[in-house]
């Protein structure tokens, strides 16, 4: 059986590294745990790091977090579906919001539960996912401020999540100015400008982050140490907190070119024949993981001799070349993963999950 390993010391190291940097710049931050898909064992590991704030996009995950750590501040990080409002008030201390009708319903439900619900209003800054348009902001805030049981603690924005629009100093200055305009117009204090995610960290390191940005939500950088501007690993951080270990279930020397009438495979893929490979052979291995668990393009082989060929629903095919390492059936191959690959693996009930202390 394939196994996903989380290395405790690497996760703790990455957390300490980021926490030190944020404290030096007087920036509040929370950990985004949606990658962990609500796995209690991994959530406990994250909560033990010392964080006081957890962000997630699934109410069921926030429920699991509150079960483990009732006092941690939980943040629901996408616009709320109507049917989820009672549970959002129950399990999320804070939520990201963009729709006035939904905020009104949250206000009503918070009253029923005798709670004060905190919100961060998300602003559209160019990536065209969630967010209130800038020209509507004054009128929007004016109506929100009239609602009982709602406390506006911040404004925020997302970058790079849909169309790949990157944060820049100019965009973040604009976001900070929105806060100043709202505070001046309504004589209200808004504590947070939440413009920071993993993609924004390079601006902090390069001294391009405006002082007004004082809150970050971090997931990918914590678990993968990835600089999303360069594609490289941040200096001083680990990129392999997670590791996928798979077992070889078949290993045979086979032709490098398929033989027969070609058509689309079940994934809708068509393959072109590389005629230069006719007559050549390579050692091919089948591993006990497949498309049901992960898209092969998100896998990073730890062994340089290994190349990923493709996958069917339950099997991954890799090429070992001359098999210089003398792999055999029953041996294991290890892979790093990109964020979306790890997300799939963590969501797969067929993959064992373990923590390595």
Automatic annotation (TrEMBL):
Alphabetized Gene3D superfamilies for the sequence: Alanine racemase (3.20.20.10)
This enzyme's EC code(s): 5.1.1.1
Names of the cofactor(s): pyridoxal 5'-phosphate
Segments forming domain Alanine racemase N-terminal: 10-225
GO MF terms, alphabetically ordered: alanine racemase activity
Signal peptide: none
Keywords: Isomerase, Pyridoxal phosphate
Pfam families given in the database record: Ala_racemase_N (PF01168)
SUPFAM superfamilies attached to this UniProt entry: PLP-binding barrel (SSF51419)
Domain of life: Bacteria
Record protein name field: Alanine racemase
């Amino acid at each position: 059986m394939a196994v996903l390993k989380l290395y405790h010391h690497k996760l703790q190291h990455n957390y300490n590294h980021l926490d030190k940097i944020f404290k030096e710049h007087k920036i509040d931050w929370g950990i985004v745990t949606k990658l962990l898909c609500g796995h209690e064992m991994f959530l406990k590991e994250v909560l033990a790091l010392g964080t006081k704030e957890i962000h997630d996009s699934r109410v069921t995950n926030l429920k699991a977090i509150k079960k483990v750590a009732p006092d941690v501040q939980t943040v629901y990080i996408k616009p709320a579906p109507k049917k989820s409002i009672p549970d959002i008030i129950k399990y999320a201390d804070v939520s990201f919001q963009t729709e006035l009708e939904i905020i009104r319903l949250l206000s009503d439900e918070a009253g029923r539960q005798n709670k004060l619900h905190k919100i961060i209003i998300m602003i559209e800054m160019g990536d065209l996912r969630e967010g209130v348009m800038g020209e509507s902001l004054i009128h929007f805030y004016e109506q929100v401020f009239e609602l009982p049981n709602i406390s506006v603690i911040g404004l925020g924005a997302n970058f790079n999540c849909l169309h790949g629009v990157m944060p820049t100093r100019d965009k973040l200055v604009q976001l900070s100015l929105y806060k100043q305009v709202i505070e001046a117009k309504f004589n209200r204090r808004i504590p947070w400008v939440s413009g920071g995610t993993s993609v924004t960290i390079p601006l902090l390191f390069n001294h391009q982050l405006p002082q007004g940005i004082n809150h970050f939500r971090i997931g990918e950088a914590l678990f993968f140490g990835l600089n999303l501007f360069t594609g490289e690993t941040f200096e001083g951080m680990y990129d392999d907190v997670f590791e996928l270990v798979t077992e070889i279930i078949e290993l045979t020397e086979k032709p490098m070119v398929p033989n027969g009438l070609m058509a689309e495979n079940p994934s809708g893929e068509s393959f072109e024949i590389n005629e230069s490979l006719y007559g050549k052979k390579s050692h091919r291995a089948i591993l006990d993981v497949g498309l049901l668990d992960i898209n092969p393009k998100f896998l990073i082989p730890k062994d340089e001799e290994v190349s990923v060929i493709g996958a069917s629903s339950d099997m991954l095919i890799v090429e070992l070349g001359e098999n210089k390492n003398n792999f055999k059936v029953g041996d294991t191959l290890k892979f790093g993963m990109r964020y979306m690959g790890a997300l799939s693996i963590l969501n797969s009930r067929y993959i064992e999950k373990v923590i390595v202390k």
